[in-house]
Amino acid sequence: MKKSIFAPLTAIALVATLAACGTPAETAPEGDSMVATEQVEGTVLYADLGGEATGPVHTATKGDTLAVSGFDVVSYFTGDGVPVEGAEEFTVRYAGFDYRFANAENADAFVEDPSKYAPAYGGYCAWAIGANDALAPGDPEVYEIVDGTLYLNFNEAVQENWEKDIPGFIASGDTNYPTHSPDEHFQD
Model-level pTM greater than 0.90? Predict the structure, then answer.
């Protein structure tokens, strides 16, 4: 197959055109709970907090940006503490990953202090990273909040193992997780 120098130039021109003609960021009127909306890669963002991931974040597939399977991480801490799914219209990008929220109030709370609500270990299984220095998916419906931090586990049986030594698994998880590259992803 022949390569053409025009293909890369065409791609660059297309990206530049899309950027120039794309939807500009909108800012809500003062006093409105909406922070801002911005269209990025086909997703309308409620806010983009920027930043880069310092460790791997669990997503359904490598390259995906939807964190915590779309569950509202603020909902774990509010009301009756039962997690709920977020809505696409309340998507906040944080450190390159998209977190969804059930309402503007929860999105605003996350925008104010994302590290308070984002799950430990990027949403990977707390027991796996603590006990085995391994990445395993965290189930957003199998969780525990310890000292104000959200921890997810793979399933209920794994969570029972984790609960046998929570402080020990957190200590080893806090040591192990930073050794993993932000671009790592669990292997099926």
Answer: no
